[in-house]
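Q: Given only this backbone (385 positions), what sequence would you predict?
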């Protein structure tokens, strides 16, 4: 292959990796990698000086791209769209979702709960992610029901992207099933990272869910509008030409949490996926696009949590979300100066749990907060700006 085309291929690969590492996989030590931050590597990969000798290799490259795209034009990507609410069946160990998919449940329940929480996990994770959170909330007489979303954990079609619309439909169906079983108990949704994106979409649809509030932990709202154009192009190209290609963030240095022991346990857990196909990453990005676009539609009590050291969901993405949040009193934003992406499992997780409890206890008047509180009246003071 021509050396210039090789260089462009490397640029494309690294641009995709800049997206992949945000969500895909841990290495054996529990870290995302060892060789430097993605933004530094991404900047290096874009430093290419143009001259006339690059014209023909560039033309050849894009001719090859055009041929590959034509050959793979049958690949279909469905944008997010609201789907009708369908019923599901709630059992002791599984939720039978619309269409018959069997989604494993982890039920951390107490007798006579003061509130119920449906927990929605992040990308490549699964329902066990909420074990520590459930232990804390159980002590407050709050029950937690966590489930493995399609394509993750022990749910069907492991490793494959089911579509944002399906994930949202599953959550809404589960919520309605829990509400039917607990008609008078306050009900909340807790979404972590990708689960936060799914939760945001599920709670901003035209037909409101019968719940009392939603908690979004480091919500996945890194839409294409907040990405570098080369990242967007590389992701589109790879998803349409190499949907089967699996990537991880193994060689790049990101720190999703300061809880190193927990990260190492995740790296050894066979149910935590360590890689992601490019079509799965594209689907995840579609979800984040839709979640970001849904932010202005928040109309129910919503708590948004974010850590200053989060390098998985970049600050520009959260800034884009905060800018378009509605000017109402429905949402509250809590900032943690010592927090990372995995706030619910960081070393300071109890601080986050305490603030979640405060929100559930009194959604309109949170007290004794461990993080810094912001609302619509002072959102320009959030350290994102």
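A: Predicted residues:
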């Amino acid at each position: 292959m021509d050396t210039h085309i090789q260089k462009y291929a490397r640029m494309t690969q690294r641009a995709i990796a800049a997206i992949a590492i945000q969500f895909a996989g841990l290495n054996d030590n529990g870290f995302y990698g060892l060789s430097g931050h993605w933004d530094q590597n991404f900047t290096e990969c874009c430093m290419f000086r143009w001259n006339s000798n690059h014209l023909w290799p560039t033309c050849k490259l894009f001719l090859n791209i055009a041929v590959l795209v034509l050959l793979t034009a049958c690949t279909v990507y469905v944008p997010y769209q609201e789907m009708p609410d369908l019923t599901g069946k709630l059992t002791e160990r599984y939720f039978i979702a619309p269409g018959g998919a069997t989604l494993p449940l982890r039920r951390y329940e107490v007798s006579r709960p003061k509130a119920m929480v449906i927990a929605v996990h992040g990308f490549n994770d699964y329902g066990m992610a909420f074990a520590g959170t459930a232990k804390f909330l159980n002590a407050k007489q709050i029950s937690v029901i966590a489930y493995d979303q399609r394509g993750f954990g022990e749910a069907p079609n492991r490793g494959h992207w089911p579509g944002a619309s399906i994930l949202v439909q599953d959550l809404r169906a589960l919520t309605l099933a829990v509400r039917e079983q607990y008609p008078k108990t306050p009900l909340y949704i807790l979404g972590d990272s990708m689960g936060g994106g799914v939760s945001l979409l599920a709670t901003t649809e035209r037909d409101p869910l019968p719940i009392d509030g939603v908690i979004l932990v480091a919500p996945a709202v890194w839409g294409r509008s907040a990405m570098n154009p080369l990242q967007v192009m590389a992701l589109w190209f790879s998803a349409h030409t190499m949907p089967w290609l699996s990537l991880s963030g193994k060689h790049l240095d990101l720190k999703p949490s300061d809880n190193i022991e927990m990260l190492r346990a995740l790296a050894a857990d066979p149910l935590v996926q360590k890689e992601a196909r490019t079509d799965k990453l594209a689907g995840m990005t579609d979800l984040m696009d839709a979640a970001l676009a849904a932010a202005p539609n928040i109309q129910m009590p919503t708590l948004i949590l974010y850590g200053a050291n989060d390098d998985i969901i970049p600050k520009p993405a959260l800034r884009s979300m905060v800018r378009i949040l509605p000017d109402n009193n429905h949402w509250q934003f809590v900032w943690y100066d010592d927090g990372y992406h995995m706030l619910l499992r960081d070393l300071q997780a109890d601080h986050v749990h305490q603030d979640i409890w405060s929100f559930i206890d009194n959604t309109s008047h949170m007290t004794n907060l461990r993080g810094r509180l912001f609302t619509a009246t002072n959102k320009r003071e959030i350290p994102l700006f």
